[in-house]
Design goal:
Layout (H helix, E strand, L loop, with lengths): L1 H20 E4 L3 E7 L2 E6 L2 E4 L5 E8 L3 E11 L5 E12 L2 H6 L4 H18 L3 H6 L1 H18 L2 E13 L1 H67 L4 H20 L12 H9 L4
Antiparallel strand pairs: 1-4, 2-3, 2-5, 6-7, 7-8
Helix pairs in contact: 3-5, 7-8
Length: 283
């Protein structure tokens, strides 16, 4: 009976020992082995043998590309504008020993480094520069963290800026500013239109006055020429002149009678004598 118990115990011990000594590492992982608390070796994908009870697998690292989502944060630009931005990084463990013993948590370290570097880069830019230079920010960000990542056994394959936009309060302020600017431009355009209209009206009045003056001068010259020619044609004979005066007198009286404003018309009592006097004839 005692022999049986011993055999069973021996089999159990052997099974546990084999389980602890034989390790199969899956593809895409590397395991860090410590012996008596000190780094001893790295297990690569496939079958591996370690010394049970002395060697222990302390860390299991993924050697595939790791996606790090950098949380959204508020950043203040050089002109004191607040913008919201976040990023995503693709890293790869290239040196498991440095990744394990170089920093406490390499993923959290890279994430915090990206956040602080992003604040620093955007803080050197104005709002417009920050919103329009996403590629420039990405390139500077990757360049800034690449050296530190190498010291931690990591390779930064890519860093992408997911969002970079003004904060909600900043967006509201920008919308109000844009609305005020549009209103200002509309008022300027309206004022310019009114000014141009007044200028054109003044120019029209000036042109009209100038043409009226020219017309009056032309009319006066024409009248003078007409009088001159009539005087030359009449000569010393005043009869035709008196006839014309009498005719104009009658036409003037006719127009005066036809006028809507003429309520009372005074007609000379001795109309015939008046006409005769205009004609220059004596009774």
């Amino acid at each position: 009976m005692d022999v049986m118990i011993f055999v069973v115990a021996l089999l159990v011990f052997t099974g546990i020992t084999l389980a602890k000594g034989i390790r199969i590492v899956p593809q895409g992982e590397e395991w860090i082995v410590e012996r008596l608390g000190k780094y001893h070796g790295t297990l690569h994908p496939g079958l591996n043998i370690i010394i049970p009870y002395l060697d222990q697998v302390r860390y299991k690292l993924v050697t595939k590309d790791i996606i790090l989502d950098v949380q959204e944060q508020e950043v203040i630009t050089r002109d004191n504008a607040v913008i919201v931005t976040n990023a995503i990084a693709f890293i790869k463990v290239t040196d498991p020993i440095k990744a394990v013993y170089g920093v406490t948590d390499f993923a959290e370290a890279i994430r915090n480094m990206i956040m602080t570097t992003l604040r620093s880069i955007i803080g050197e830019m104005n709002l417009d520069e920050a919103l329009s230079n996403r590629d420039k920010i990405k390139a500077r960000l990757r360049e800034s963290i690449a050296d530190e990542a190498i010291d931690w056994g990591l390779t930064v394959k890519s860093v992408e800026i997911q969002d970079i936009k003004p904060s909600p309060s900043m967006q509201k302020a920008m919308e109000m500013q844009a609305a005020a600017e549009r209103e200002r431009k509309a008022m300027v355009t309206k004022s310019e239109g009114e000014k141009q209209s007044m200028i054109l009206q003044a120019e029209a009045r000036l042109e009209s006055a100038r043409r009226d003056a020219e017309a009056q001068v032309t009319l006066a010259e024409a009248s003078a020429e007409a009088i001159k020619r009539v005087s030359q044609a009449i000569g010393d004979n005043e009869g035709p002149m008196r006839y014309m005066l009498g005719e104009k007198y009658i036409l003037a009286m006719t127009k005066l009678a036809d006028s809507h404003n003429a309520k009372t018309i005074l007609i000379p009592g001795d109309l015939q004598e008046t006409i005769r006097a205009v004609l220059g004839r004596k009774a």
